[in-house]
Amino acid sequence: MAVIGSGPAGFYTSYKVMSKIENSVIDMYEHLPVPFGLVRFGVAPDHPEVKNCQDKFQEVAESPRFNFIGNISIGDHDGALPLRSLVPHYDAILFAYGASRDRKLNILGEDTLKGIYSARAFVGWYNGLPEYSNLTPDLTQGEEAVVIGQGNVALDVARILLQGVDVLRSTDITENAIETLKKSKVKRVRVIGRRGPLQAAFTIKEVRELVKLPSVAFHPVDTSLIPEDISKLPRPPRRIMEVLKKGGNASISTAPRSWSLDFCLSPKSFNPSKVLPDQLGSMSFEKTTLSPDPFHPTAKAIGTSEIIDVPSSLAFRSIGYKSEALPGFEEIGVPFDNCLGVIPNDHLGRVINDNDGWSTSGGGAQIPGFYCAGWVKRGPTGVIASTMDDAFSTADSIAEDWYAKVPFINQGHKSCLGWEGIKEEAREKNCRRVTWEDWKKIDKVEKERGQENGKEREKFTRVEDMLAVLD
Amino acid sequence: MSSAIAASRGMPSLTKLTSLYLRVPSAKAAPLRSFSSIARNPGSLCPGKPGNLISHKPWTTSNPPRYFSASAVSLHGHVDPPKAGEELYVTFIDKEGDEHKIAVNKGDNLLTIAQAHDIEMEGACEGSCACSTCHVVVEDEEMFDKIPEATDDENDMLDLAFGLTETSRLGCQIVMTPELDGLRVKLPSATRNMQASNFGKK
Ligand code: FES
């Protein structure tokens, strides 16, 4: 089986498939020379315990039945391998490549003003994602920042901006990010959402962590958006409301920095600064009301036409990620739902025809041998635990299909050589494969570099530098 | 869903496979060359079927599968067997409803115990109270009350656990004490059912 993507979804699915189907062999393709996807590039550097799942992935990768094929992207460009070249050599292909794009607001000023960043780019940058190594965000234009969106990524961005660099010094955050954050002038962060606290996507751990930061004050939330009697709420939202009502310990008048959760505001435009016309100076929002029941998790935001201006010289867009189709899907007959940003599947990971309404019925004919897991399967939400559960459900489907002898990709042919059958073409296409042993060398050097600075690890932020270790 | 769970019945967990592997002396002697050469060596995988990456073939002694290498074992929690007379008992009821009664030492936590005994409990954050993959449901309410109360951190993670109940706890945070002797915990059912509503939300 080929697995496209080496994040938690790819690894957890591989792990389960390998333990359920004896003799199964996994070839895992990753476009970067380094594995682990969002565990390396998404999980906040000050949450190292969340990265402990890498030990499990390491264990999976050490199996002789597992081959890491790093530094090889799928596509038709130079140095990449076309998807069609993989198909003849595998029984099954699992898509677990995640969500590579972020959603845009499509409002005035978004593409023209300086000071507007996508949270995905910012997070990628401080975590050393090569794609964003040149981002160099400017945090010195003013004291006020807004984060648009209220998921955990938004709270990660707020926390990184607010908590002060000392906490980050020993983590695997890039040195470059530490230097930039040291110069930051940001003192006030607003985390803004279109709906209310009961509709917000953040989870309790992240919000509690921010509320509790010692020298960062938390502005009280608008309590009209919280039911008077919270004791009747289900446990998870009830406990979040308790945290929000209680607030933090730092005082707004004396704490050097502060933040707030601002609800029921829908972004309308980015406005230039009065002094520097190409620099962001403020944002306009339309106030919303929640309907029909403001305390229901599915309440919708309705515009009120009342506009307010929020001063800000820095804005982060964090309204969700989006998956894209892989180049070559059409050619091999794999559908993609551009609207939802997922591969049509039966909710258990089997890729199906994208007939109308597939996402609600889950019905549709299975396309033999193709499976998906993670964010391309269910959309870009969820913590490690849900990604794991979801990956296991895909693995269960694969094993079930295998033992039920339903058709796989190359039924009847005996040419499934895996990487052995492809590597010649890869060589011709100038692909340079990075093996697991190679990754371990890169890993070792990164850790050594970190040690010199008293850090967990100093990541290479450029693909050339990673590969240079192997030369 | 139920059929998927049924299919998993009787499947050995990865850790179990590891220990099986260790009991095959000839396999143990195999040198670890580069991964690809081993994995792609047709003879070592499924004789006579070079192309078949995932084989239907059942495992027979003449055809020992290669499972995870010995080093993997050290990653799992190591627990010492309890001294005679001092053992405490804990029973895990797995997703298939099978009971596993285990004699353990005072001070062991449920995650390490489960992992040392091949009970299917993930511990994605390795006991750092940062994931909720070690979620267990304590069967008896009275016993639940005897466990020292959960911290905010533990409750925060539990709030994200699938199938949260009144007597849910994180396995990695339950440490065995004489008061908890005879504890019985259930592993919440296998997979989160990915329903259409998950898509509808956006
Ligand atoms: S192992 Fe992660 S919370 Fe217990």
From TrEMBL, chain A:
GO terms for molecular function: oxidoreductase activity. It is found in: Mitochondrion. One of its GO terms (cellular component) is mitochondrion. It is an enzyme of class 1 (oxidoreductase). FAD binds at A9, E30, L38, I74, W375, G382, V383, I384. The keyword Cytoplasm does not apply. Its EC number is 1.18.1.6. NADP(+) binds at Q150, G151, N152, V153, R194, R195, E206, G382. Gene3D superfamilies: FAD/NAD(P)-binding domain, NAD(P)-binding Rossmann-like Domain. Its main location: mitochondrion. It catalyses: 2 reduced [adrenodoxin] + NADP(+) + H(+) = 2 oxidized [adrenodoxin] + NADPH. Its cofactor is FAD. Keywords: FAD, Flavoprotein, Mitochondrion, NADP, Oxidoreductase. Belongs to the ferredoxin--NADP reductase type 1 family. This is NADPH:adrenodoxin oxidoreductase, mitochondrial.
Automatic annotation (TrEMBL), chain B:
Its cofactor is [2Fe-2S] cluster. InterPro entries: 2Fe-2S_ferredoxin-like_sf, 2Fe-2S_ferredoxin-type, Adrenodoxin-like, Adrenodoxin_Fe-S_BS, Beta-grasp_dom_sf. Belongs to the adrenodoxin/putidaredoxin family. This is 2Fe-2S ferredoxin-type domain-containing protein. GO terms for molecular function: 2 iron, 2 sulfur cluster binding; electron transfer activity; metal ion binding. One of its GO terms (cellular component) is mitochondrion. Pfam families: Fer2. The keyword Iron-sulfur applies. Residues 88-191 form the 2Fe-2S ferredoxin-type domain. The keyword Metal-binding applies. Keywords: 2Fe-2S, Iron, Iron-sulfur, Metal-binding. One of its GO terms (biological process) is P450-containing electron transport chain. PANTHER family: FERREDOXIN-2, MITOCHONDRIAL (PTHR23426:SF65), FERREDOXIN/ADRENODOXIN (PTHR23426). It comes from Cudoniella acicularis.
